[in-house]
Sequence to fold (247 residues):
Amino acid sequence: MKTYKSSFLNFTIICILVSISHNITYAQVPSARKTYWRSATEFIFSFSDVQGKVAQESVQDQDLSASLRFSGFFNFQYQFHYDYSRTVGFMTGFGVRNVGFINTIGDSIKLKQRVYSFGVPLALKIGSLPDKFTFSAGVEPELFFHYKQKAIYDDEKYKKMGWFSDRVSLINPSVFMEVRFKSNSFIRCKYYLQDVLVSDQQSVTIGEKSVYYNPSSSKMFYVSIGVSVLEQPRKKKTNERKVYSLQ
Fold:
């Protein structure tokens, strides 16, 4: 976990320095303020740090070994942008994401857990906005509205899911950073500030047997790559009538 946090911090510092150096060399010419919409999608690589006790196995907390999880569907955002100047702007909007993590319970149960979330971001953008090269940092509270658990044991799969589940925190705030490039692609890093799992509501059902575990900590963060597309304004329909000549 310390390695992940160190890498996350190093990436942040590099992004800030690149953005600042780009701004220094860019002439700050005033321009008209403007608003516009963008739609975006992302491919998410998520990590977790889950610590907890497995019933009848350990008195002390143990690291429930984590694996990298990839999510390509369904991750969609609709963003509203306000460019205050050529170098400073703001972004908000809404989005739906598929986020989660993979852990091993005991020695033989592979546990995959994911949530669909609805989030509303608020971010500050700096950079060369006309050139589409920006660095953004912001916050995004997310509502975890659908939960799914998949346990794999002896090559058999056992699933459990539900809406607004009491197994996860209903609302989880997050902080994120993003670098967007001229190609309209972006790299985003996000960290969830609260534990994802509710500590006293966790169990895995394998056939007629249930394994209980109590996570004392369940933090999640991810790195993603994505692309955003400018939404073109709709053209107003004209009510012009065609005039035909009888000549």
User: Anything to note?
Assistant: Confidence is low (pLDDT under 50) at residues 17-32.
